[in-house]
Design goal:
The protein has 203 residues and is α/β, with parallel strands linked by helices. It is built from seven helices and 14 strands. Helix content is 22%, strand content 31%. The protein binds zinc ion (ZN). This is Glyoxylase-like metal-dependent hydrolase (Beta-lactamase superfamily II).
């Protein structure tokens, strides 16, 4: 498995292109980018778009990908409606109005198979009610739940600090060797965060 990180958009949310064999998935396409030239390097067949949550800075590029590749888009069932809604996707508060028209499929917690990818879907509410983490092989895509030495804010609509704490307890029980690819900033590991992240240390 290979992971390519592209910080996109005005708040530089990390978009991840994950490839394995001749297959690719995109996690959190927060703005437009040249996906086709990345896919041509394999060449890789794009299988799906996975969303860690529906905030504007993680979703703005979804429609362009679906238009050109007709792939399914997966998100927590409670955030399907956020994609179209500029208040719930927080774009109205920070940016211009973002409204995604592509249909999205509801994720289920647990194991999900997509082509060569075996994905563990973890619902980790707190930053938003439908925040989700994905474990693929030795990587955890943590969205805005867990950052290097920090965590996502809980003061946006549907955020909850109590739920965030429960989600962090869950993440801190994962394998120390897991590489964490967060929604913003550099990658880290679960073990490093358990030693250095003040929010995990204070659980
Ligand atoms: Zn967010």
């Amino acid at each position: 498995m290979n992971v390519k990180t592209l910080p996109l958009g005005p708040v530089q949310a990390n978009c991840y292109i994950v490839t394995k064999g001749n297959h690719a998935i995109v996690i959190d396409p927060g703005d437009l980018f040249d996906l086709d030239s990345i896919l041509a390097q394999g060449p890789y067949t794009l299988e799906a778009v996975l969303l860690t949550h529906a905030h504007f800075d993680h979703i703005k590029g979804v429609d362009a990908i679906v238009r050109s590749h007709s792939v399914p888009v997966y998100i927590h069932p409670q955030e399907v409606a956020f994609l179209k809604d500029p208040s719930l996707n927080a774009s109205v508060a920070f940016y211009d109005r973002v409204s995604i028209q592509s249909p999205a499929l509801p994720l289920q917690p647990g194991r999900m198979n997509l082509a060569d990818f075996e994905i563990d879907v973890l619902f980790t509410p707190g930053h938003s009610c439908g925040s989700t983490c994905f474990i693929i092989d030795n990587a955890l895509f943590s969205g805005d739940t867990l950052f290097q030495y920090s965590i996502g804010r809980t003061d946006l609509p549907t955020g909850s600090f109590m739920e965030m704490k429960e989600s962090l307890v869950r993440l801190s029980s994962l394998d120390d060797q897991l590489i964490v690819y967060p929604g913003h900033g550099p990658s880290t590991t679960i073990g490093m965060e358990k030693r250095m992240n003040p929010y995990l240390l204070s659980l």
